Amino acid sequence: MRPEEGADMRCPWCGTQDTRVVDSRPAEDRTAIRRRRECASCSRRFTTFERGQGAFLRVIKRDGAKEPYERQKLVDGVRKSIKNRPVTEEQVAALADRVEEALRRAGPEVTTQELGLEVLSHLRPLDEVAYLRFASVYKDFQEITDFERELGLMLQKRKPKPKRERKRKRPASRR
Ligand SMILES: [Zn+2]
């Protein structure tokens, strides 16, 4: 399940390939990702600097422009969606790791849509409200997709009974 990663990510202590990411952040010069990994076999931890295709993702925006993937942007987006929700920073970090692992397998270039859907698939089991919030933001810059239909079904099932719904009126976005 981890073709190109295997070789470099082996545990330096016992050589097993089965390691888990416990923390990751961009290296200082931002040309690599620094990860703390924990060995599933001997439980010792080590640091890797992951570079190259798998490590460094590029995001293709809807207008076709490409930009380097930035973990911070993803984390910021998720943080907004979990405001006042019982989701911890650790859970957000773990979510970001899982999203990155999945995207690295799909990469080195991923679309914003793939990125958004990947976040949603991991956010959903964590917190439904956060999921819906993230989805509503995400929808702003995405085409209509199957996802939207799914969201509609989900909202129907919830049958919300708000005592008093406050509608925030915002002017239609213009630029
Ligand atoms: Zn080990």
Description of the molecule:
This protein starts with 18 loop residues before the first strand and ends in a 17-residue tail after the last helix. The strands form 2 sheets. A 3-stranded antiparallel sheet has the order 1-2-3. Strands 5-4-6 form a 3-stranded mixed sheet. The protein is globular, with a radius of gyration of 19 Å. It has helices at 52-55, 71-81, 89-106, 112-123, 128-140, 146-158, and strands spanning 19-26, 33-39, 45-50, 58-60, 66-68, 109-111. With 175 residues, it is α+β, with helices and mostly antiparallel strands. The chain has 2 domains: 3-51, no CATH class; 58-154. The chain is built from 6 helices and 6 strands. A hairpin with a 5-residue loop joins strand 4 and strand 5. Bound molecules: zinc ion (ZN).
List descriptors.
2 domains; three-stranded antiparallel beta sheet; 175 residues; disordered N terminus; binds zinc ion; alpha+beta; 6 strands; 41% helix
Q: What is this structure's SSE topology?
A:
Blueprint: E1 19-26, E2 33-39, E3 45-50, H1 52-55, E4 58-60, E5 66-68, H2 71-81, H3 89-106, E6 109-111, H4 112-123, H5 128-140, H6 146-158
Parallel strand pairs: 4-6
Antiparallel strand pairs: 1-2, 2-3, 4-5
Bound molecules: zinc ion (ZN).
Zinc ion is lined by residues 11, 13-14, 16, 39, 41-42, 44.
Label the overall shape. Answer: globular
Question: How many distinct folded domains?
Answer: 2
Count of runs of 4 or more consecutive helical residues: 6
Low-confidence stretches: 1-7
Order of helices and strands: EEEHEEHHEHHH
Radius of gyration: 19 Å
The strands making up the biggest β-sheet line up spatially as: 1-2-3
What composes the largest sheet? 3 strands, antiparallel
End-to-end span in angstroms? 45 Å
- What number is the mean pLDDT? 76
- Roughly what fraction of the amino acids lie in strands? 15-25%
Work out the helicity level. 40-55%
Structure ligands: zinc ion
